[in-house]
Amino acid sequence: MSRQIKLFIGLGNPEKKLENTRHNLGFIILDEIAKSENLSFNSNKIINTSFAFLNSFNNDRIWLLKPMISMNLSGGVIAFFMKYYGIDPDEIFIFYDDFSIQFGECRIRTSGSSGGHNGIRSVIEHLHTNNFPRMKLGTGPENLTAALVAAQFKRDHSIRRQGEDLVAALVAAVMTSAQFKRDHSIRRQGEDLVAALVAAAMLPYASFVLSEFNNKNNKENEKINLIKRTSINVFKTINMFGIDKAIYMLANKKL
């Protein structure tokens, strides 16, 4: 049975110029959740946070947290808040943008690597674990394909060489699965290579990610509203029935 989620976190950037961009979707969603619960955020500039709270059905306090610092450094703020209030990694739930998922789609994961997302990487590094629930909010364009990654991979010789070296190391390591499990350096090289490939492939779309939402674009508004509704329903489902129920409902498109 999954533990109760005590802390919901939105990853974003506090800069005004990024306020209404795809890369700030974690903040946007947390604002919508707060609005749906008639909550207001309080700021604490000493620990760089903006937070709100409500009481659960069991009368336990549930927190909403926005780290008011560069997204790439948010892990330290989150770890401090969790330690102060005695919250464990499996009792948090993070909303964040994911460029590898098509705009409008959402996915829940209970653990996993950063996938190249620097905000999640920071959280993993400061919590010393990747076993915490999170929800990926799709921000990617419809025409994002594997062909782009392949083309970039062919051009970037340093990444290609890293890939060749990694493959050779993996072939040697997977002679026994036990060896692969023990060799953390190879596993970390694999994660770093994937992150490098993602970063290289996404570079042409950097301006797209940081561009503001077009409020006059009906199709874009529909996708944003879909993400908002889905996220609010996930939040409510987790609080009422637990994260396992939310995962099931989202996977079966019932949220």
Describe this structure in words.
This protein has 255 residues and is α/β, with parallel strands linked by helices. Helices cover 49% and strands 17% of the residues. The protein is built from 10 helices and 7 strands. A 7-stranded mixed beta sheet has the order 2-3-4-1-5-7-6, sandwiched between helices.
Secondary structure: elements and pairs:
Blueprint: E1 7-10, H1 25-36, E2 42-44, E3 49-55, E4 61-67, H2 74-85, E5 92-102, E6 106-109, H3 118-127, E7 134-140, H4 146-155, H5 157-173, H6 177-182, H7 184-202, H8 206-210, H9 218-241, H10 243-251
Parallel strand pairs: 1-4, 1-5, 5-7
Antiparallel strand pairs: 2-3, 3-4, 6-7
Helix pairs in contact: 1-9, 2-3, 4-7, 5-7, 9-10
CA-based gyration radius = 19 Å
Distance between the termini: 21 Å
Number of strands: 7
Approximate shape: globular
Low-confidence stretches: 145-153
What percent of residues adopt helix (DSSP H or I)?
A: 40-55%
How many helices?
A: 10
Going by helix content, strand content and strand pairing, the class is alpha/beta
Strand order, largest beta sheet = 2-3-4-1-5-7-6
Mean pLDDT: 81
- Biggest sheet record: 7 strands, mixed
Q: Approximately how much beta-strand content do the residues carry? A: 15-25%
Order of helices and strands: EHEEEHEEHEHHHHHHH
